[in-house]
Amino acid sequence: MSAEAETNDVEPGAAPESMLIISESSENLQNMSSSLDEIKKMQPDNQDENINNVDPDDYDDISCNTIATGDDYIKDNDWLGKSKHIFVLSSAGKPIYSRYGNEDKFASYFGVMQALVSFVQADNDSLKSIHVGNTKFVFLFKEPLILVSISKTGESVSQLTAQLNYVFNEIVSMLTLSRLSQIYQQRRNYDLRRLLAGVERLIDSLLDFSDSEPSFTLGAVKCLPLAASIRDTISSAIVQSCSKIKDLVFAILLANNNLITLVRMKKYYIHPADLHLIFNLVRASESLKSAESWTPLCLPRFDSGGFLYGHVSYLSEDCQACLLLLTVDREAFFTLSEAKQKIVEKLRRANCLEGINESLNVREETCAETGFPELRHYLYKCKSTAQFYQPGVGAPYMSDYGRLLTLYRRAHQRLHSTSRPLKLLYEKSSDEVLLAWDTKGFELYVVLEPSTDKSATIALIGKLLTWIKKQEDRLFHLNAPTF
Amino acid sequence: MAADDGIEDEVFEDQHLNVLTSENHKNSTPSPTGYRGYKPPQEVLNLAESDGTLSETGQEVHKTILLGDSGVGKTSLLVKFDTGKFQQGNFAATVGIGFTNKVVTVDDCKVKLQIWDTAGQERFRSITHAYYRDAHALLLLYDVTNKTSFDNIRAWLTEIREYAKDDVVIMLIGNKCDCNSERLIRREDGDRLAREYNVAFMETSAKMGLNVDLAFMSIARELNYRQNGNYDNNRFRVQDYVREQTYAPSCTNCNV
Amino acid sequence: MTEKFTYYLELSKNPVRFEPVNQLTNVFFDDSNKQVFAVRSGGVMGVVVKGPSEESKSLNFRMDDGGPVISIKISLDQKVLAVQRSTNSVEFMNFKGSNLDNKYSQSCKKNATLLGFVWSYINEVALVTDHGVELYSVIPEKGTLKHLKSISVTVQWFVWCPTNKIALLASSHGSQLLPVIFKPGSVSKMPKVEGDPGRMILERDITLGTLYGTAAVLILRHQNAPQASEVHIHLLNGSSSAPIKRHVLRLGLSGRFAINIVDDLILVHHQASRSSQVFDINLQGENDGTVTYHKAVAPAKSIQPTCLEIPGLLEPQKHACELYSADWVVFQPNIVIDAKLGCLWCIHLILPELCRQIPDLSVCTQLVLNRMNGKEVLLKLLLDRIELPEPPLQQLQSSFDCINILYRKWIESELQIQTASPAGAQLPSKIVFQPRVLITQADMYSRVFQKLDLANKLQKLEWVLISYITSLTQNDIPTELSLNEMLVNTLVKQEKNSALVQFLQYGVVSDSKPLACRLLSLGFIELALDMFARLGATEEIIEILLDQEQVLPALQLAGDKETPRKFLQVAQNTGNATLFHSTVLALRSNPHFKESFLKDERLRVYLNHYASLFPNSVNTSK
């Protein structure tokens, strides 16, 4: 099957330069860069008062009233029946977050989790996971927090760990890592929930989002299919409107969890994991639709030590694409507000808003509609640009996309298993044929009719790659514009 | 932030979160108005052509900030005032600061309000402080069904005194006054506190629309009045005006 | 097995009784007709002829006084009596009713001394003299004889074998042995029996008999060493080839012996030890290339004691017969005569008892397979041995092999008959191979396996079945369904599923549709499917797969004869939308069924169902 793929010099969707940092699948979120200092140093006079230096003691700790454990969740079948629980606690064992139920009500279990982690840690070891039947207990200790996932979903330890990392980063993105560490250095028993009011909603959303989407597993983002000319026009409208604005690091236009374009400051890249947090913020914050917003936002992979400031707004009432202008200048709101108006005006004149709306209103073609009836669905990830494409979901997964995701996650795990990674996976069951293929340039996950034999599968994949190649400038963002 | 407050916040938002996510996921049409041939309202077009400022009127923009604990209904109040709609089920916590321009007519005068809707969460406070300084008016909200949000008003007022201009117009608002059965703060408690700090006070319901316009209009009227000179008596005027115009909720158990 | 004293040889319960030898009476035995002649006073006082059994009609007659009788024999058709009273002639008398008349005689050649005479065929008589053999045709109605043929050879004594019509002529004190064979109207020499040169043989040491259809000369050899007597057996395979010594029976004794042949077994009676040994030349023994040395198949045992009823004064008395008495005379093949007692017995073999004395089942099986009426004995024997607490599995295996080698030969011969003979044609000249003991699968099933099954001896049944089926397989005999089913059931009852899988996989249990159905009914769907697949039973597989709701695999097997509705209906009934989707898709992309979607209105309902499951899908259009 390599014939088709290798004859093309570049795999579909590849571009000379990417606006995204190329991500390897198993997210190593430890490495956080400190891009902010670099950008700020370019400023001659940086009078920034460090907002990270707020002493947590300045705030009255009025939330420390522990609630008596009246009703026990362990006896609650509804609670027990959840296929995945996520808990966040401080390294001192204080409850911070629970996916389901009120975390205060099982403070004692948090104590057990903390004890487990610290017990193992006492031996200079770390507790990764506990396996009981088909339930996995996965632990992630990220100073100063402990994150725990209890899952019956069949996801692998590394996938669950990656999800916990996302949860940690979501918290960091609200507070910055510096501030998080500082808070606990000053008060080990601090109840972080007072600072995270409303963040639980973002975490809930993040978990739902990552459970219902392949992009997190793939470490890639999906682009809104657009004619290359429209996308280029949009990019240049942004570049033109913002070129004179100093300190603007990223301009991101997205709609319906799809990326439309991303313009960046030269030399700086955004990591897909950070982009996922941004997608999640927009997805979870309906209030952004009611007004132009101005918010601090930390991108942990970009710089976990400080905030970027984001001007966030929907393009217009008649075009529900969300524009984020991220700057290091905390006073730039009005400048950016003005730039946004200009961008919208340019886009309107160039009929780009209509173009975006059209793409948003058209349901993505299913494989059957494209002319591959035996192909039920697929994921194609171009590694060099960290972008992926998936067709519309057709029969028989229309109402059961979750099953498809479970298949993809399992295949992804097999390809990226740390102990025994596979290059090619071909699995035939009575329900479907699953093929996963990891090449230098791309990853491909294909689900086919169970009656498709091997040779037909190979032929189909060849045809599919050719089709993607033909469509690549519509499906992928091939340029990486800069200010 | 109080635990009670947090719970309130969560309950309120959790109810609608699922609706949100599923809609976002399934619905490929992002906006009901994003159809072909859509013509944006004239004012949007004007806005686009006017470079985003309201300079054509040649009048000063009055900066007004909505403050208060998370979940007391700041955004709801603003949206009700701005659009006349109550966003039942479509509400989510404000991210950072929301920015809304609104032109109102008071005393045959056009008054431009630039309304800053702040996030109530503690972590955003450092960024909101920066905007207190420029504010002409502050609407400080609490939730009549949430005692903590009322108790925190004193802390808010202390903060305002520290960061805001001395002559800032302040209005204390007890929101959600339609929720009689869950009410914890009596109207007279709010009134007493307002008198203590010498600020205007009213109870509102964003849901029912009760006193919403009045709150903003009285601020606009006051700001307009001050701009046109008569500075000395302003504080008393706005309070008097409010007292005259307020519609008290028609209920027997709120001790009015 | 409790070792009660058992006998494997017995004398006939109802012996032929005759007047014992005394001063007046002489007794003669004619081994051609197996008749005992009690001749009183040379026949003047009367002759009583009895035999061959006590029940057969006895003959009484008187003869004229002619001196003492040397030999007396009735012709094979019982019409002419021949009596030798001198050394040079034989008298003949025709029977007329029970009386005799028309006496005539025949002398032998001049100067020759008559050694004896035999009735070779009806109305043919041979006089054996010291000069050779003279063959005459007897013409009773004319009262004359006609010379047919003569052989000139020196004879000292001779032995006659009535069954094979062979006379063995001995000269040089028995060191020269010449067989001659009689044909109607003719007699001819056969090649000499190769004896040890210069070694004398007494007449009583020679036995002529038939072993497994072949004429044989059995020569008792008294060796110099003690306990080392042997019987040398020379087989007379046809007239042309020389009789060769093929077998040697090692008796391990010395003294006086007598030999009988019963059911092709050689019985050697030893007078001194009053015991008998049994030999079977068909069993394996020590072989030096030409000669096989045999040992007795079982420990030597006495013949079972027997009693005679003697009329007493008041009531009959029992008289215990002395066995191995000095008065015994033994005749072929199985006759023992006690002339003093006036008894003629036949010796019989008690096969089950003999078997009991043979510990090795394999040897025992080989022995029984060659016995007349061995079938019942063998089946019983097998069951008995299997039911032992520790059955001899190894011996059982070779026992089955022996059984099945014969079984296989029989099957082949049956097949040849069936294939070689067109309808109505004459059976081919080739003789049907009919083993003495034929044990078929049906026999094994009903007489051995079913009994084990009924006794619920599953482990044993499993072993024995596998052993038996293995033997069948090695002999290329297809296993019958009943056995395969039984093995499968046995394994299933013991929950030995992995063994079952292996037996099927390695073909120990052979494939068949009924067996596959049986597997199916036992719930071994996969195994049944595999078997059907090996048998190429597509239709059955499709039905099973559909029954299992495996619509897609079924569809892949379906030819154009199948109706799409069947598959669609099953897929729909499963309630599995994915399956229904794939079924519709597979049917539409299959050239066999594509058309019917356009033509067959009855499929409309399924397409509507599809549309309800997957609205707006491309497959719903058309």
Automatic annotation (TrEMBL), chain A:
Annotated region described as Disordered, given as residue ranges: 1-27
GO cellular component: Mon1-Ccz1 complex
Residue ranges occupied by any FUZ/MON1/HPS1 third Longin domain in the UniProt entry: 374-472
Domain FUZ/MON1/HPS1 first Longin: 84-206
GO biological process: endosome to lysosome transport via multivesicular body sorting pathway; protein targeting to vacuole
Alphabetical list of InterPro entries matching this protein: FUZ/MON1/HPS1_longin_1, FUZ/MON1/HPS1_longin_2, FUZ/MON1/HPS1_longin_3, Mon1
Coiled-coil region list: none
Domain FUZ/MON1/HPS1 second Longin per the UniProt entry, residue ranges: 246-345
Function field: Plays an important role in membrane trafficking through the secretory apparatus.
Entry-linked PANTHER family: SAND PROTEIN-RELATED, VACUOLAR FUSION PROTEIN MON1 HOMOLOG
Similarity section: Belongs to the MON1/SAND family.
Name of protein: Vacuolar fusion protein MON1 homolog
Biological source species: Agrilus planipennis
UniProtKB/TrEMBL annotation, chain B:
UniProt record, GO biological process: protein transport
Record CDD domains: Rab26
Cofactors demanded by this protein: Mg(2+)
Residues in coiled coil: none
One Pfam match: Ras
Major enzyme class: hydrolase
SUPFAM superfamilies for the chain: P-loop containing nucleoside triphosphate hydrolases
Signal sequence extent: none
UniProt-recorded Gene Ontology molecular function terms: G protein activity; GTP binding; metal ion binding
Keywords: GTP-binding, Hydrolase, Lipoprotein, Magnesium, Metal-binding, Nucleotide-binding, Prenylation, Protein transport, Transport
Entry EC number(s): 3.6.5.2
Catalytic activity: GTP + H2O = GDP + phosphate + H(+)
PANTHER family: PTHR47978
Family: Belongs to the small GTPase superfamily. Rab family.
Protein name: small monomeric GTPase
Naturally occurring in which organism (per UniProt): Agrilus planipennis
Gene: LOC108734177
From TrEMBL, chain C:
Pfam families for the chain: RMC1_C (PF07035), RMC1_N (PF21029)
SUPFAM superfamilies referenced in this protein's UniProt entry, alphabetically: Tricorn protease domain 2 (SSF69322)
Domain Mic1: 371-587
Location of the Regulator of MON1-CCZ1 complex N-terminal domain: 27-144
Gene Ontology annotations of biological process type: regulation of autophagy
Cellular component aspect of the GO annotation: late endosome membrane; lysosomal membrane; Mon1-Ccz1 complex
Listed PANTHER family: COLON CANCER-ASSOCIATED PROTEIN MIC1, REGULATOR OF MON1-CCZ1 COMPLEX
Protein name listed in UniProt: Regulator of MON1-CCZ1 complex
Organism name: Agrilus planipennis
